[in-house]
Amino acid sequence: MTLQDTNTAAARAPHIGQAHRRQTARRHLAGRGRFVSDIVLPRMLHAAFVRSPMARGRILEIDTRDAEQSPGVVRVFTARDLNPSCKPWTGTLDHFATMVSAPQNILAEEEVLWAGHPVAMVLARTRAEAEDACELVMLDIEEGEACVDGHAALTGDAPRAAPGLDSNLCFQTVLETMAVDAAFAGAAHVVEGDFTFGRHTAVTLEPRSVVADFDAASEQLTVHHGTQTPYQFQDIYARHFGLAESRVRVIAPDIGGSFGMKLHLYNEEMATVAASLKLGRPVKFVADRLESFVSDIHARDHKVSARMALDAEGTILAMEVDDMTQIGAFSTYPRTSVAEGNQVVRLMGAPYRMPDYRGRLSVVFQNKVQTSQYRAVGHPIACAVTEALVDKAAARLGLDPFEIRARNVVPDDAYPFVSATGYSFEKLSHEACLAKLRELMDYDALRAEQAALRERGIYRGIGIAPFVEITNPGAAFYGVGGARISAQDGAVVRLTPSGEVQCAISVTEQGQGTETIISQIVADQLGVAPEQVKVTTGDTDTTPSGGATWACRGAGIGGETALRAGRKLQGQILALAGQILQSDPADLALADGHVVDAQSGTRRMPLAEIGRIATYRPDTLPEGADNSLTAAEHFAPSGYPFDFTNGIQASLVEVDVETGIVRLLKHWVVEDCGRIINPLLVDEQIRGGVVQGLGPALFEECLYDETGQMTNASLADYLVPMACEMPDIVIGHVETPTNDTILGAKGVGEAGTAAAGAAALNAVNDALSPFKAEIRQTPMTPLRILAALGHV
Amino acid sequence: MKSPAFDYIRARSVAHALEAYRSLDGEGVYLAGGHSVVPSLTLRLQAPAALIDLSGIDALTGISLDDGWLRIGAMTRHAEVAADPMIRDHAHLFHLAAPHVAHPAIRNRGTIGGSLSLADPASEFPAVALALRAEMEVAGHDGVRRVKADDFFLDIYETAMEPGEILQAILVPPVRAGDVAVFDELARRRGDYAMVGAAVQAVVDAGRVTDISIAFFSVGNKPTRAGAAESALRGARLDDAVIAAAQSALDADLDPSDEPQMPASVRRHLARVLLGRLLGHLGTTA
Ligand SMILES: Cc1cc2nc3c(=O)[nH]c(=O)nc-3n(C[C@H](O)[C@H](O)[C@H](O)COP(=O)(O)OP(=O)(O)OC[C@H]3O[C@@H](n4cnc5c(N)ncnc54)[C@H](O)[C@@H]3O)c2cc1C
User: How many Å lie between the centroid of ligand 1 and the Cα of residue A662?
Assistant: First the structure.
C-alpha cells in the first residue's frame, strides 16, 4: 500500500475528521481541574522571591537576618546557598555558529541583570508569610548603567548587558542569494519601510507553577511542573543537579495555557528544585501575575528595515531585510533566544516566487526580561513586514491587493518549491486560499461599502495577509544544534482485559485538545469509539519519551505516532483473533468494538472477549500464540525537515481618525493544515491564535522606561485583548495532506497568530490611506495612529 | 501577591465605624465594595491593622427622593446605579456613566461611595458628581456636614474628608426643566479607565444653552470642571462656531501631565474631540 492509498483510507475513517468536544472540557467546567497550584503535599513549603528592583547593578549586601526571624519562615536562600548545587546553563546552540551568551545560575550572584532578576528565595509555611519575609530582606545594590535600547547597545562604548561579554551582540547571520543587488538595480519599483514590533508576553490563565518533591530516602525527585515539555525538564533537572534520569520524574498535570512560554528554563523553577533537594521537603512556587510580567519570557521586540524590488508588472524580484531582535541579558535555555530572529529572516517573502533575497539578523542583549519562543515564533514579524511591503507596492502600481498577490504567490501546481531563503515546500495552496478568501469575505461588496462610507467620513480598511507556517519540525530545529530536545515522539497503546483501549503518549495537553485527537486517531485504528480510548500524557514515568508539544507537532507528529502504534496493536489483535477464530487475520478487521469479517462486516467476536482470553485464559490459546496486547511505536519525521502549511487572513477595521482608536469589525481566515483530524478543535486553534495575533497588533506591549524598568507590569496597565474588542472570526479550509505521513496532518496551532497582526496592520493602513498616513509600529495605539495622522 | 495579615471589623452603624477607626489610631481602612482596597492590599501598597467593613450599615444604603433632591446611599453598588429607575430619572448622568465603570463583576461589588471617597482622577463618578453639582454627606465625630462636589475633590486620591470621616450619601439637586445630560469617554478597551472622559449636564431652552456644567476625568490630578468652555457656551446656541470656541477654551481649563504613553498635547487633543462630539450630541438630544 502506498502512502497515498493509506491517506484515502484515513479519510474514510469514522472519527478522524469529525468534530469531537475536548474531553477535558467537562471536567474543567465542573471545577475538577488539577493544576500544579491544586497540588498540596505534606510538609510542603511555599516559595517567594526577592527580586532586583533595578535593571543593572552590583550586589553589595543581602541581609536576610530579619527575614529569617519572620513568622512561618523556614529558610532564606541566596546564591551562595543554592547555586553550587546546580551546573550553570548557557543558552547557545551549535548550529547558530558564533552565538554567545553568559552562563546562568539560579540566583543572581554578583550582579543583577534585569529588573525582576531573583536575588533571594524565602521558604515559609504559606506564600503570604513568605511574602511578608521578602519585605524584610535588605538589599544593597549599587546601580549600574543598563542597556535598554538595542541600537545603543551595539555602540562601542555601551555598557555590557552581562558580565563576560565582549559585546552586546549575541548572534549575527546573513543569508543571501547571488543576484540581490542586481535585482534592486534593475527594479522598476522599490518600496521600503522601517518597522518596530513591541515586546509582549504570554499572560497564560494559569501562571508558571512548580512543586518539587525530593524524597531523600528513595533518592527520588518528583517535579509537578506546569510545562508543555516534561521530558526536556526531566533531562535538565537530571543533568544540572547531577541526578540519574531514572531518579527524576516530571509530571505535567492540567496546564492552563503555555504558548511556548512554559518550555523555557526559569530561575524560579530551578530554585524550587534546588530548595527541595536541600531541605528534603516539597516546595511549591506559583508565580503571581506581577512577577510573571518580569520573569516569564517576553516575545518579539524587533526593529526591522526592509525593502522590496518589483518589476513594472508588479512581480516581486527580491527583498532585503535587516532584523534586530532584542533579547534581554541572556539567551534562554535550552532553545536559545535566536530561533525567533532566525525564523523572521527565513520566512520573509515565504508565500511568493521571489527569486532573490538578502536577510541580515542581529540578536542583541539588553537588561530586560529575556525574550524567546512564543506562539508562531518569528512568523508575525516576517508576515507583517512582507505584507506591508506588498501592499505598498500594490498602491504604487495601482494594483488591487488580491491582484498583486495572485501575480506573485507560488502557483499551486509549482510544488515542490524551494524558497529564496532555502525552505523546501512540499505542497502549498496559496491560489486556492486566495480564491476561497475572496469569496468568503465578499471582497468586492466590502470595497464598495468602504468607498460609500468614506464619503461620509467613516474610514474603514481592509487588509489581507497570506502566510506560511512551519510545523512538524524534525531534528533540524534543535537536535542538530546539540540540544537534548527530542524530535521524535512515542506512544504505547494497549487493549485492556475488558476490551477498552489505553494510550500513553509523549505529546502533551495544555488545553488545545491533544488528548482528544489522539483518542480519535487511536479509536479509528482499533474500531472503537474515542470515548473508549483513555489517553495519558505528561508524566515521564508512565509515558514514553518524546518531544511533547511545541512548534505545532502534537497532531502531525504525535498523531502519526498514535496512528502507527494503533495499527501495530490492530495487527496483534487480528493475529490473536485469527488464532482464536481459526481464520486468516487478513480476512478480519476491527469495527464497533468487535472483530469483524473484513468483507461482510459480520461480527465475529467482541474485543472484550479478546481481552478476556488473552488476560485470564491464555492457557486456551494455541501453543506458541502471542497474547501481547500492548504495542509501542516511536516516530520521527523524515522526508521534509518541516511540514509547511499555508493560509491567508483578512481583517476589516474602522479607524476613528480623530481619536486614533481602531475597531476590529471582522476577521477571516482560510487555512490549510493538511488532514483535519477534528474541525472543531482546528477552528478553536485558529480563533485563539488570531486573538493572540491581534493582541500585540493593537493592545499588548511590555513598556520600559529609559532605566530599564517595565512600567506597565500589571494587568491594570498591560492590555490583553478581551472579548468585547475581538471581531467575529470566519474560518474556511483548504485541505492538502502531507505525503510524509500516513495521517497527512500538519500543524495548525500557530497559523492564527502568524498573520492576524499583518492583516490588521494592512487594514489600518488601508483606512489611513486617504490621509497619506502610514503606521509601521505595533501595537497600533491611538497615540501612534494620531502621530501618523499628524495630529500630534 | 498575598496581602499581609489584617483584622476585620464589621461595623454595625456609622457611630460604630467611626469609633472603630478612632481606636485603630490611623491603622484602620474602611472597606466598601473592596474593589480598590483589596487589590491595594494584595499589591502590598498598604498594610492596615484592620479593615472596617461598611457594608452592614443600613444608613449607608438606599435611594430616596427628598424635597426634589435625590439621596443615593454610599453603599449603592455600581450595578444598582446603572439599573435604578430613580437614578435614571433624577440623576441621569450617573445612569449614563455607570456602564462605563469597569466590568459587570466589578460593578456588582463596587460602590458609588467607595468610588467618590477614593477620588481616583480617572474614575467616572467623581466627574459626574461635579457635573451634577452634587453634594456629599459626610459623617464625622462632630456630626454630619455637606460638602459641595466642587470643594470635595482636592487632588489625586484626596478629598475634603478628614481621615476617618465617612461618606454617607450623595445628594443630587432637583431636576430642572430642559435638563439634558450627555456622557462619553475614550478608552482603549471597553471597561478600561479612559484616556479621557467627560460628563456634561446642561439646560437647553429653545436651542439655547442657559446653563451648563462640564466635568472631565482622566485629564489631570482630579476631576476637572471646564469653566472656560462652560462660559463660551452659556447663553449661546450650539452651532459649529460655538462648539469650536468651547473646544479652544479647553486649553485654559485642562492641564494634563506629560506621560510617555500619553503626552499632554494628545490628551488635550482627545479632550477637544470628545467635547465636540458631546456638544454635537447635546444639540441633538435637547
Ligand atoms: C479591574 C478593575 C477595573 C476597574 N475599572 C474602573 C473604572 O473603569 N472606573 C472606575 O471608576 N473604577 C474602576 N474600578 C474601581 C472600582 O469601581 C472600585 O470598586 C471603586 O472605585 C471603589 O469602590 P469600592 O466600593 O470597591 O471601594 P473600596 O475599594 O472598598 O474602597 C475604596 C476607598 O474608599 C474608602 N471608602 C469606601 N467607602 C467609603 C465611605 N463610604 N466613606 C469613606 N471612605 C470610604 C476606602 O477606605 C478606600 O480607601 C475598577 C476596579 C477594578 C478591580
Answer: 29
Backbone angles phi, psi at A161, to 5 degrees: -75, -20
A658 CB neighbours in chain B (<8 A) are 273
**Cell numbers that stand for A448 in this block:** 464598495
Contact: B190, A135; criterion CB under 8 Å: no
Residues of chain A scoring pLDDT < 50 = 1-12
The pLDDT value recorded for residue A13 is: 62
C-alpha radius of gyration, chain B, whole number: 19
Nearest-CB residue to A782 (from B4, B190, B195) = B195
pLDDT tens digits, B239-256: 999 999 999 999 999 999
Ligand 1 atom nearest the C-alpha of B126 is: 11
Strand partners, B259: B262
The pLDDT tens digits of the residues spanning A526-584 come to 999 999 999 999 999 999 999 988 888 889 999 999 999 999 999 999 999 999 999 99
> By the 8 A CB rule, do A508 and A538 touch?
yes
CATH of segment(s) A36-144+203-295: 3.90.1170.50
**Residue-level pLDDT at A418:** 96
Q: Classify A9 as helix, strand or coil.
A: helix
Specify which residues A745 forms β-bridges with: A674
Q: How far is the CA of B36 from the centre of ligand 1 (A)?
A: 4
**Domain residue ranges of chain A, discontinuous segments joined by +:** 3-33+488-635, 36-144+203-295, 298-475+639-788
| Contact residues, chain A, for B5 at CB < 8 Å | 128, 132
Q: Could you count the other beta carbons within 10 Å of the beta carbon of residue B1?
A: 18
Please state, in angstroms and rounded to a whole number, the distance separating the CA atoms of residues A368 and A152.
14
Are the CB atoms for B35 and B77 separated by under 8 Å?
A: no
A708: nearest Cα among A362, A329, A340, A372: A329
pTM of the model: 0.96
Topology (CATH level 3) of domain A3-33+488-635: Aldehyde Oxidoreductase; domain 4 (3.30.365)
Look up the ipTM and state it.
0.96
Residue A474 confidence (pLDDT):
81
Flag if B260 and A725 touch (Cβ within 8 Å). Answer: no
